Amino acid sequence: MSTIKAGIIGATGYAGAELARLLMSHPHVTLAAVSSVSYEGKTLAEIYPNFIGVTDLILEDADAVIEKSDVVFASLPHGLCEPIAKKCVEKGRTFIDLGADFRLYDEADYNEWYGLSYKEKELHDLAVYCIPELDRQKAKGAKIIANPGCYVTCSSLGLAPLVKSGLADLKHVIIDAKSGVTGAGRGLSLTTHYPECNEAFSPYKIASHRHTPEIEQNLSALAGEKVTLTFVPHLLPVNRGIVSTIYVDMTKPSSAEALHKMYADFYQDEEFVTVLPLGDIVNLKNVRCTNNCQISVHYDKRTDRAILVSAIDNMVKGAAGQAIQNMNLVLGLPENAGLKLIAPIF
Ligand SMILES: NC(=O)C1=CN([C@@H]2O[C@H](COP(=O)(O)OP(=O)(O)OC[C@H]3O[C@@H](n4cnc5c(N)ncnc54)[C@H](OP(=O)(O)O)[C@@H]3O)[C@@H](O)[C@H]2O)C=CC1
Ligand SMILES: CC(=O)N[C@@H](CCC(=O)OP(=O)(O)O)C(=O)O
Prior knowledge:
Blueprint: E1 4-9, H1 14-23, E2 29-35, H2 44-47, E3 59-60, H3 62-68, E4 71-74, H4 82-90, E5 94-97, H5 107-114, H6 121-126, E6 127-129, H7 132-135, E7 144-146, H8 150-165, E8 168-179, H9 194-197, E9 202-203, H10 212-223, E10 230-235, E11 242-250, H11 256-266, E12 273-275, E13 293-300, E14 305-312, H12 316-331
Bound molecules: NADPH dihydro-nicotinamide-adenine-dinucleotide phosphate and ligand 2.
NADPH dihydro-nicotinamide-adenine-dinucleotide phosphate binds near residues 78 and 98.
């Protein structure tokens, strides 16, 4: 198999740098080019010293990355990717966007939640939104991939079997999610300043976070009807990881055993989603630095409410790892290539 040349636009951000780290050990890929605006001309290793002795790649401009790569990843703030996607399509490159510019099908949602509009509508018709475990049949050969949001991946995987079963009361779905601080990116802000977030814990953007319509888009597709839910994120003072604790009323009484079987059956062939044995409870540390999602299934028989707990690493399954999984699918590579990662014990 010939080596695929990959490039990263925005390689100096947290998600871009994580992508660089993972692509460097992908068996079928060479990291061919990386870009930055602020640090153009410096080496990636000057920005992130963990790359000293690993790569001499110099940060170039976005056009150089597109020129040198078969697959172009962008990991940029929202609203910048349409022109990049356009150039990639014109030059026959596969384009994978880690941001939100191609995630929402309905422009009105993008308008409402991001305050932005679509300028190149035909590009959006080409884009394929893909959580592989739910959408993988759509990805092969795609020209543009919209890589899903981090909270969205964690929460959608946690809800998919129950929503698809038709046994969920879709008017009563509550997602209580917590993310590590890398989720906010490398940019400096008071909220993520160490003394402000360490020893602290708080929700933010209560029922107003931009991932809400994306989760609803996924669940509506699974349910075959419009789903509206409550989503509350929290900032957790750890570097990586997301845990979503999800509460769903049932349309008729069930049991922990029945619910657990539903989840275990749904994900039985999935390498990257593990349903824990009944009685076990998800812990963030067991998915750190991996492309895995772990789910534990619980049932409150006093209220006939299902409680699902789902955990991922926001930098890997929530961003860079899932982007590689999508690249593997688009190119017909083994889906797990470069992603056989086991969580460190400490
Ligand atoms: N962190 C996470 O957990 C996740 C992030 N994502 C998405 O990935 C993308 C990047 O996020 P993240 O890595 O956290 O963010 P960072 O703030 O850490 O990085 C942002 C990157 O974008 C570049 N950049 C910033 N402004 C511009 C600009 N105006 N023009 C060109 N490049 C620019 C920066 O490069 P430089 O300053 O060197 O030019 C940097 O490489 C976002 O869309 C985010 O939503 C997706 C899932 C999870
Ligand atoms: C902790 C934190 O601030 N998290 C970010 C979400 C992470 C992210 O970058 O969002 P995407 O997955 O859409 O790219 C936030 O709440 O905006």
